[in-house]
Amino acid sequence: MPSERRLWKIVFDNFLKSLQPKLKEKPIGIDAQGNKYFELEADPQGGRRLPRRWFVPVDEESGVPTPEWSQWLRGRRDEPPTQEEIAHNEAIANMKKINAENIAQKFRLPGSTNETECQQNSKGFPDMSEKFEIQPGNLKSKIK
């Protein structure tokens, strides 16, 4: 019978805890898309060792957080990203795109066609079957 008394004590303690005021969420920031980010501080006495973090998207379909904000949401970083950091990372990404395009143009063969001109197969990949041998020595169309 002592376990029943203890059960009622647990129920009563939980009832008293439910009457205590809830912690208020703290707004952390807004990204370039307009998504809003929030955090509830960690409460070790209440059983929550880590802070609870979430975001409210502006649009349900396109509301995807940036990589920096995703790291903060998942707890991989303690501090939220700054606007300067996001702008710096964007500049690096744009520079890599430009460099990749320059390298592609530099090594493009004079008679080659763009990949966008190729037909796509049923899985969405370019169909290159006419340009390569299926079996060695049996090239369907001789490309010179």
TrEMBL record:
It holds the Pfam family NDUFA12. Residues 111-123 have a biased composition (Polar residues). InterPro entries: ComplexI_NDUFA12 (IPR052618), NDUFA12 (IPR007763). It comes from the Eukaryota. GO terms for cellular component: mitochondrion; respiratory chain complex I. Belongs to the complex I NDUFA12 subunit family. This is NADH dehydrogenase [ubiquinone] 1 alpha subcomplex subunit 12. It comes from Acyrthosiphon pisum (Pea aphid).
